[in-house]
Amino acid sequence: MMEEMKYVPLLQKVRQYDARVMKAEKVLRMATIDGAKALGLDREIGSIEIGKKADLITVDFRKLHLTPVLTQSYNNIVSNLVYSAQGSEVRNVMVDGKLLMDNRKLTTVDEEEVIREGQLAAEQLLERREVYIPKEYRFQGETV
């Protein structure tokens, strides 16, 4: 979702030949409450309000490409989030009040097992299709 937030305004700026088109705050709103409205779910999700589902993320802004973080007379947090943040900066994810990722660690699935099973399934599929996989690229029992 982070990449989509970045490219929506950039494409509009190019399309309209105007760098002022679609401010970062509008893009964030589109990704949250306006997106929920489009789905008919704005009474349940899309904003932080009493009675709504607690769908939240925390983002680690302590990265070179997300600095400086200014909060006084000029606030650039939303711009940094929209134009520079990546999914890898998401530290925690809560959906409907349930913590699904805690400090970059998934809480509901064994990530290593998912990677291992996915890798093996892909290799088996290619082998069934008689696609040669060099030994150095085959799964060796450790996650990639």
TrEMBL record:
<dbReference type="InterPro" id="IPR011059">
    <property type="entry name" value="Metal-dep_hydrolase_composite"/>
</dbReference>
<dbReference type="GO" id="GO:0016810">
    <property type="term" value="F:hydrolase activity, acting on carbon-nitrogen (but not peptide) bonds"/>
</dbReference>
<dbReference type="InterPro" id="IPR050287">
    <property type="entry name" value="MTA/SAH_deaminase"/>
</dbReference>
<keyword id="KW-0378">Hydrolase</keyword>
<feature type="domain" description="Amidohydrolase-related">
    <location>
        <begin position="1"/>
        <end position="99"/>
    </location>
</feature>
<dbReference type="Pfam" id="PF01979">
    <property type="entry name" value="Amidohydro_1"/>
</dbReference>
<dbReference type="InterPro" id="IPR006680">
    <property type="entry name" value="Amidohydro-rel"/>
</dbReference>
<protein>
    <recommendedName>
        <fullName>Amidohydrolase-related domain-containing protein</fullName>
    </recommendedName>
</protein>
